[in-house]
Amino acid sequence: MNKSRKNGGTMLRYEDFEEKTITRKEIFHGKIIDVALDEVRLPDGQTAQRELVFHPGGVGVLALTDENKIVLVKQFRKPLEQVIFEIPAGKIDPGEGRHPEETGARELEEETGYRAESMEHLASMYLSPGFANELLHVYYAKNIKKVDNPLAQDDDEVLEVYEWTLAEAKQAIQEKTICDAKTIFAIQYWELLIAQGRV
Predict the structure, then answer these.
(1) What is the pTM of this model?
(2) Could you give the 3-state DSSP secondary structure of residue 32?
(3) How confident is the model over 42-94, as pLDDT tens digits?
(4) Domain residue ranges of the chain, discontinuous segments joined by +
(5) CB atoms near residue 116 (< 10 Å)
(6) Which stretches make up the Nudix hydrolase domain (predicted)?
């Protein structure tokens, strides 16, 4: 790979940045993540260690009701030791990797009881590229409707569904009850959709 970057007038090649793996020690294989410890050689010849988390990827869904309210789920997040509000989201299951919109549609229905007429891709982003390869896809669920017999929630999930106005959602960001990147991004994109006259 011969990608280049300009730095102060000097073109830096991909090789000027690349960290080459010397050894990899697999630490943990879990239901959601795998963890490894790499020893790498830096471009200047020195060595360093990198703690790596491998994740299959996930999908988050911006879903708006006919009343122009965002659909959120309230749940306890153990790493934070607190309850927060988030857009419906979940990890990509085996077989869904090439079609993450299927994950989004499934998670939306499982977590909220809503089904979308169609899914529009908004963005894909790496959440913590310093140590994890998780790629999150964010979709806009169009023309959502409640279904009589939605897909069942995961057995280990306890969720409550809320529908908030834009003002309520922005207030929750200020109060830090909305504090995750995907949900803050979705709310900002919602504002963009409003500005474009699309909702």
Answers:
(1) 0.90
(2) coil
(3) 999 999 999 999 999 999 999 999 999 999 999 999 999 999 999 999 999 98
(4) 4-54, 58-195
(5) 20
(6) 53-186
